[in-house]
Amino acid sequence: MDLVGACCAFVHVSERGSFTVGAAAAHMSQSVASRRVAALERHLGEPLFERSARRARLTPFGRELLPAARRLVLAAEELEHEAATARRRPVRLAVPDTCPAPDLARLAAAARHHGITLELRTAAPAVRPHLVRSQQVRAALVAVPPDQARWCVSLGLAGLERPPGRRLYLETLRPRRTDQGPPRRVWLQPEDDVPHIRDRMTRLRDTVGLRPAQLSVATSLTEAAAEVFSSSDLLLCSPLQAREFALHWRPLGELALERTFGLLAAEEGDAERLGTRLGDALAHCLGAGEEAAAGAGGRQEQESGEPLEEKKESA
To answer: For residue 292, what are the domain limits?
Structure first.
């Protein structure tokens, strides 16, 4: 038996003294109200009303139970109100500041289809875990080691000049005596200033004989891109970012590099809920998956006439 629905019919009929009027006030038909009250009477073992053609009058038993029935109906209404409020309460999510605004808007729209209101906050990689620990956000997309990753984003080198081959080898940047001007540099953006990317690039730089200054970490993606636009320098970035900046992107020849992300949340259930319901939309924001890589790669193939290799080479 629907105890709350039966008590709702009981309360409204008792307040109006009529099954017809009471049922209308409870937004149900008269027949439904009659069935619910009758079921409640059977459940409680005593009649609640003295019925006549004109009125429904409470029995002494009904008068005794009416206050408790009102409390139950009010408690149910309060529960529904709190549930609706909780559904509307924003879920604050920290995301990389490299995520394009249109993709973040699509992420927020996708969340609404799942009954989630997202409040997005962009932040640097070192800041996002702190925002979760200080409870400024409920969850964050954070950089994690490759073996803990939920989303992976391929990285390569991009510049203004179209590379001749399918891959771009860092050793080709080794300074020569005949070179004029400063040696070409590779710029890392803050999102890639994490050990499993920065340290591997540093070891590769030293292995192939580049100067220390040829690998630099910029204070922002904007600064890194500005350096590339004003020189022959290269940007370590994803295919999606290369497409946004209209740069020519190639995979790194000596090393397979990826940004690797996971979800950190104050409550484990939040991470699982967001990852399950919004996994595809989050991947799109990060530039992860074949779709983002194929989109950028297809453009470069058309420009250069050479297909990009999708297969990675290990160091």
So the answer is: 151-259+288-304
Residue 181 gets the label, from left (phi > 0), alpha (psi -120 to 50) or beta, of: left
What angle is formed at CA 192 by the lines to CA 190 and CA 194, rounded to 5 degrees? 100
In a domain, 160, yes or no: yes
Q: What's the CA gap between 219 and 157, in Å, rounded?
A: 18
Least confident of 9-13, 83-87, 118-122: 83-87
Structure token digits, residue 129: 């875990």
Contact 216, 186 (CB under 8 A): yes
- Beta carbons within 8 Å of 36's beta carbon, 6+ residues apart: 2, 5, 6, 8, 9, 10, 28
Span 50-99, pLDDT tens digits: 988 778 899 999 999 999 999 999 999 989 887 776 666 789 999 999 99
User: Using one digit for the tens of pLDDT, what is the confidence trace for 37-54?
Assistant: 999 999 999 999 998 877
Which H helix or E strand runs over 296?
helix 289-304
Q: Within this chain, do residues 81 and 202 fall inside the same structural domain, yes or no?
A: no
129 & 177 share domain? no
Integer Rg of the chain from CA: 32
- Answer whether residue 315 is part of any domain: no
pLDDT digits (tens, 9 = 90+) for 280-292: 999 999 998 643 3
The SS3 assignment for 50 reads strand
Residues 6+ apart with CB under 8 A from 98: 189, 191, 221, 241
